[in-house]
Design brief:
The protein is mainly alpha-helical and about 170 residues long. The protein has a single domain, classed as Four Helix Bundle (Hemerythrin (Met), subunit A), CATH 1.20.120. Helix content is about 60%, strand content about 5%. It has seven helices and two strands; from the N terminus they run ααααααββα. A two-stranded antiparallel ribbon has the order 1-2. Helix 2 packs parallel to helix 7, helix 4 packs parallel to helix 6 and helix 4 runs antiparallel to helix 7. The longest helix has 27 residues.
């Protein structure tokens, strides 16, 4: 076999012969990193500028993904007293809105912390671990990981478009 050069930032490529968990985690981490790369180097004004008819902004996407990380990992798998999984459309819409004083830097830091916490929580359970989810019934950690890959990849695509509309930057890495 020829000597193949693999970009180490492409986790899914590096994990291509790993076990199921390694592959799922590599894909999720790859899409998480794409979102962060799309946010880096922007000003607060650029990251909060509305470029599409909806209220979606790049900073809002990052904030939303931090909320989603907390919902699907700590709140479902390791809830603290009083934690509840949000189920309303209002909860979802609010997760995209920056509060007074929030900056791109602060939402990026919150997202990085949420991802680290998600990894920590998920690592304690096997893929077959099942928990109740208020809208779906029982879900496994495997299902949560696949759902989070889908959710994060979808929003990474949105971030691609918003970044290209902001300054012309394209590409995943």
């Amino acid at each position: 076999m020829a000597d193949i050069q693999i970009d180490p930032t492409l986790g899914p490529v590096v994990a291509r012969t790993g076990d199921e968990r390694a592959i799922l985690e590599a894909f999720l981490d790859f899409h998480r990193s794409v979102v962060l790369r799309k946010a880096r180097g922007l000003t607060d004004a650029d990251a909060t500028r509305r470029l599409v008819p909806s209220a979606t902004t790049l900073a809002g996407l990052v904030k939303h993904l931090a909320v989603i990380e907390r919902n699907w990992f700590p709140i479902l798998l390791d809830p603290a007293p009083g934690d509840r999984f949000p189920t309303s459309e209002e909860d979802a819409a609010a997760s995209f809105a920056l509060a007074e004083g929030e900056t791109l830097e602060s939402v990026v830091e919150a997202y990085e912390a949420a991802c680290a916490r998600s990894r920590e929580v998920a690592a304690r359970f096997p893929l077959d671990h099942v928990v109740g989810q208020p809208q779906l019934g029982e879900v496994s950690l495997r299902w949560i990981l696949v759902h989070m890959i889908e959710e994060t990849a979808r929003h990474a695509g949105h971030a691609d478009i918003l970044r290209e509309l902001t300054d012309g930057e394209t590409g995943a890495v």
